[in-house]
Design a protein that fits this description.
6-stranded parallel beta sheet; 10 helices; globular; 317 residues; Rossmann fold
Length: 317
């Protein structure tokens, strides 16, 4: 890769993009952050506002506004641009308009000679991550979607509240589409060091509560969008966590949208799965031992994505 050490270019300075930018600066994750957006006036204002917090950041982060040429030597380009989800709208309903936007954005990024990692945040994130991979020609390892990192964080928070433990002591994953067909992997979950399936076996009455917790987790975005117009802080922090894993070569496993090549019995689709993340991007897709019911739900989630994704590429070919 040809890149400046810890330089990040953010394309799209709406609510999600700025939630991410604030998390980067507040946590001191990168050395250089460049914002770009068609609304240059707003973006330049965001730059000034972020820089005014520099005195209280844990380490210096140079924040500036720039054009696509800044991507040429960036380690990571994060795409948070595109049409946002409206109240009552599913993520998959955004595909047509955002596919065309991404075609232009990715072409402009790649025209700079960019050879870093592209991190996709825009919905429908799984389909747009696949599109980014196809549009860019980059190796699959260098294209990552935010996947189910936010859904997983929501699940961990909700479980922590239910069991009255610290969120950090909850280990549970949401996999599949970042959307209505996602699923929890209860079979491998644990709370405060104890297997969740064993908790259920000992206390069967909690099973319906867990079902309700999952529904609340899955549908959380709809309530947030209805209340404030968009989600921003949770996804911003999730994107920042992925960025930290990449720049720090942490080799940590996170639930992101990665390309399947036979894992879980599927191929040719980007979808939320646990993957080891390092400086080169996705190091390995981790194969969970799913229960038959979980595998069936995952298969259905893949089918949901392919029903939207495949016709576009068949028509475009």
């Amino acid at each position: 890769m040809k890149y400046v050490a810890n330089k990040v270019v953010l394309i799209g300075t709406g609510a999600v993009g700025m939630g991410y930018a604030y998390a980067l600066v507040n946590q001191g994750i990168c050395d250089e952050l460049v914002l770009t957006d068609i609304n240059e006036t707003k973006s330049r204002g965001e730059v000034v506002d972020l820089n005014h917090g520099a005195a209280w950041a844990p380490s210096p982060v140079s924040v500036s506004f720039g054009g696509y040429q800044e991507c040429s030597d960036a380690a990571i380009v994060v795409i948070a641009a595109g049409a946002a989800q409206k109240p009552g709208q599913t993520r998959l309903e955004l595909v047509d308009v955002n596919m065309h936007i991404f075609s232009d954005i990715v072409a402009r990024v790649m025209d700079t000679g960019f050879d870093g990692i592209i991190l996709v945040a825009t919905n429908p994130v799984d389909i747009l991550t696949y599109a980014t991979w196809r549009f860019s020609g980059l190796p699959k390892e260098q294209v990552i979607g935010s996947g189910t990192i936010l859904d997983t964080a929501r699940l961990r928070f909700n479980l922590a509240q239910y069991f009255e433990v610290a969120t950090q002591n909850v280990h549970a994953l949401i996999i599949g589409e970042h959307g209505d067909s996602e699923l929890p992997v209860w079979s491998s979950a644990s709370v405060a060091g104890r297997s969740l399936p064993k908790r259920i076996a000992a206390h069967p009455q909690i099973a319906p509560d867990l079902d309700e917790i999952f529904v609340r987790t899955r549908d959380a975005a709809y309530g947030i969008i209805e209340a404030k117009g968009s989600t921003s802080y949770g996804i911003g922090m999730g994107l920042a966590r992925i960025t930290r894993a990449i720049l720090g070569n942490q080799k940590v496993t996170l639930p992101v949208s990665a390309l399947l090549e036979g894992e879980y019995g599927h191929e040719g689709v980007f979808i939320g799965v646990p993957a080891s993340i390092g400086r080169r991007g996705v190091r390995e897709v981790m194969q969970l031992d799913l229960e038959p019911e979980e595998q069936e739900k995952f298969d259905a989630s893949v089918a949901t994505l392919r029903a939207v994704q495949d016709p576009f590429w068949t028509t475009s070919a």
